[in-house]
Write a structure and sequence with these properties.
Largest sheet: 7 strands, mixed
CATH architecture of the largest domain: 2-Layer Sandwich
CATH class of the largest domain: Alpha Beta
Structural class: alpha/beta
Oligomer: single chain
Number of strands: 15
CATH topology of the largest domain: D-amino Acid Aminotransferase, Chain A, domain 1
Order of helices and strands: EHEEHEHHHHEHEEHEEEEHEEHEHHEH
Shape: globular
Distance between the termini: 33 Å
Radius of gyration: 21 Å
């Protein structure tokens, strides 16, 4: 394997960015990272050769020039976005960035249509991919009318995560009209509606399915695996905290056929929920980028989506290998919080909790060969717990659902 081509990780996405750095760094690939937060977790990894602090969401044109500066310093690297904002930015400036970086070429319109849950909903319906029933209110009055006729529970979430109200939650499940309107008043951005109301498909956490894959320039799936969420944080409507690889040929076929129809290229992270009422899988989330759960999906040859993309973009064969049935991966801190919630709800016993880790092969933060990131996570979590539970009346300054607030870029900018 030729590992001489460097990569640049754009954005950290906490465990997602760290996973990229470790996965390719262990192969000997030179790794660089760009993030707005000087405390970004991937900067702490020994596999990150250098971190550049820059907020690419503020001034797009200047950000392009700053990234070009990075490319001039390290060679023509593979560029790996790890968030919706990063993926949209790369697609929107692909002509200029393509002169200096290697990445799959996708139209900005397609990336936007997949990042926006509203546009994704109508795109899926157009192509015959099933989705939960969804409503997109344009005002409080429309939400109020919907609440009087809705069949609860309803899940509420942002249409576009990059437009999320700073006061809002990422997702919320409500069981009554009163709760829906109360959450609407907190979550919605009145001047720019960004909230969707979606049918909550009944069933347990095992109804939540995932697909991770990599598609080449001809939209062929060179690597793809499926899995299930065992627990998530926040419970019932969050990100995987404990997951398992489970083969699902039907879901694999649905996804690859859909991506071929739209001409998709690159890394894909997509979520479905199985509806036992009609025996169908229904898509609820599409991420046209690296997902934070991608290290769950590792084959018997050690392949994952980050490695598959690197090999393909550097002109090397991708040996996908075979899925590791039953392989598990955990996010240590959020799974503790998730487990406590399920335990309080009497849906997780001590014995079930212990058994749930059978087959666990990897965790998001702890690693014997790269210990600094887990130390940083422990310190951050202790700070969050102290501000949340110990200091009476103190406003919580660090939410587990959001990254830490960064300081100004200052002397740590890319150009320095």
């Amino acid at each position: 394997m030729d590992t001489s081509t460097p990569i640049v990780v754009l954005g950290s996405a906490r465990q997602g960015g760290l996973g990229v750095v470790r996965s390719l760094g262990r192969l000997g690939v030179p790794i660089y990272a760009v993030d707005k937060d000087p405390r970004a977790l991937l900067f702490a990894s020994k596999y990150c050769k250098r971190g550049f602090v820059w907020d690419f969401t503020n001034d797009p044109e200047q950000s392009v020039e700053e990234l070009v500066t990075v490319a001039r310093k390290v060679g023509k690297p593979v560029l790996v976005p790890t968030s919706d904002a990063a993926a949209t930015f790369v697609a929107s400036h692909s002509e200029r960035l393509g002169e200096w970086f290697r990445f799959p070429l996708l139209s900005p319109k397609l990336v936007q249509s997949l990042c926006s849950k509203k546009e994704m909903f109508f795109l899926a319906k157009k192509l015959g991919v099933l989705t939960p029933n969804t409503f997109f209110p344009e005002s409080r009055q429309e939400a109020l009318r919907f609440s009087k006729e809705a069949r609860f529970p309803i899940i509420m979430k942002p249409i576009e995560t990059i437009k999320t109200n700073s006061r809002s939650f990422q997702k919320a499940i409500v069981g009554s009209a009163e709760a829906l309107i109360a959450k609407y008043d907190v979550m919605e951005i009145v001047e720019s509606p960004n909230l969707m109301l979606q049918e909550y498909i009944p069933g347990g956490e095992d109804a939540n399915w995932m697909f991770n894959g990599y598609f080449d320039a001809q939209s062929r799936c060179l690597f793809g695996m499926t899995g299930q969420k065992i627990r998530q944080y926040r419970p019932y409507a969050g990100v995987t905290s404990l997951g398992a690889c489970v083969a699902n040929p039907r879901l694999h076929e649905i996804t690859t056929r859909w991506m071929a129809a739209i001409g998709y290229r690159g890394i894909l992270d997509i979520g479905y929920r199985y509806d036992a009422r009609d025996g169908q899988y229904k898509v609820f989330d599409v991420n046209p980028r690296m997902g934070c759960t991608f290290r769950l999906f590792v084959s018997d040859s050690g392949m994952d989506v980050a490695r598959a993309q690197y090999l393909d973009l550097t002109g090397q064969p991708v040996g996908a290998g075979q899925p590791r049935e039953g392989r598990k991966w955990v996010v240590e801190d959020t799974d503790i919080l998730s487990s406590l919630y399920y335990w309080r709800e009497r849906k997780l016993s001590w014995t079930d909790w212990l058994v749930s880790f059978r087959g666990l092969e990897e965790s998001a933060f702890f690693s014997w060969d790269d210990p600094k990131p887990v130390v940083q996570v422990v310190m951050e979590d202790m700070g969050w717990a102290f501000s949340r539970f110990v200091i009476p009346g103190k406003v919580r300054c660090l939410s587990r659902a959001q990254p830490a607030v960064s300081r100004p870029v200052g002397r740590n900018s890319i150009s320095n």
